Amino acid sequence: MIESSDLIGLDAELPTADVVMLATPLTPGTDTILTGARMDCLPPGAIVVNVARGALLDETALTDRLERGSLRGAVLDVFKEEPLPPTRRLWGLRQVLLTPHVAAISPRRIWERELELFLDNWARSRRGEPLRNLVDKDAGY
């Protein structure tokens, strides 16, 4: 869970960041963690990367700052609404790289990794052992 002291630390680091990469779960504490006000703390020329969840940032605020030139660019693999509607201004911005929610793709296909985890957890369950990658319902992920 993100605490208010963590956000103070985040806010202190933003003015020194050349790149901000969002790779965190979406929880009540991280929903819209990158607000317009936080983007305004970034130095001119900063880049925003989001490979986690679209709701982690304010898409309209990001678009506004990219159009104004106060941010250098963005790399976005996820969006609050997927697929990204064709009417969104992000489509027309040259300094934005948009990908279709494929950041998890690797040479070892995700389905292979998921099947391996499933089979391992099934065997662990039959042996009465703890399972891997359990969801912490209190934390939200």
Note the main attributes of this structure.
31% helix, alpha/beta, 141 residues, 11% strand
Verbal overview:
The chain is α/β, with parallel strands linked by helices. It has 2 domains: 4-103, NAD(P)-binding Rossmann-like Domain (Rossmann fold); 106-141, no CATH class. It contains 4 helices and 4 strands. The chain has a 4-stranded parallel beta sheet, with no helix packed on it. It is globular. The termini are close together.
What's the structural blueprint in terms of helices and strands?
Blueprint: H1 4-13, E1 19-22, H2 36-41, E2 47-50, H3 59-68, E3 73-76, E4 96-98, H4 110-127
Parallel strand pairs: 1-2, 2-3, 3-4
Provide a brief overview of the structure.
The protein has 141 residues and is an alpha/beta fold. It contains four helices and four strands; from the N terminus they run αβαβαββα.
Q: Indicate the overall shape.
A: globular
CATH architecture verdict of the largest domain: 3-Layer(aba) Sandwich
Assembly state: single chain
Percentage of residues in DSSP E strands: 5-15%
Biggest sheet features: 4 strands, parallel
CATH topology of the largest domain: Rossmann fold
What is the strand tally? Answer: 4
> Helix and strand succession?
HEHEHEEH
| Helix/strand structural class | alpha/beta
Amino- and carboxy-terminal Cα gap: 10 Å
Side by side, the strands of the main sheet go 1-2-3-4
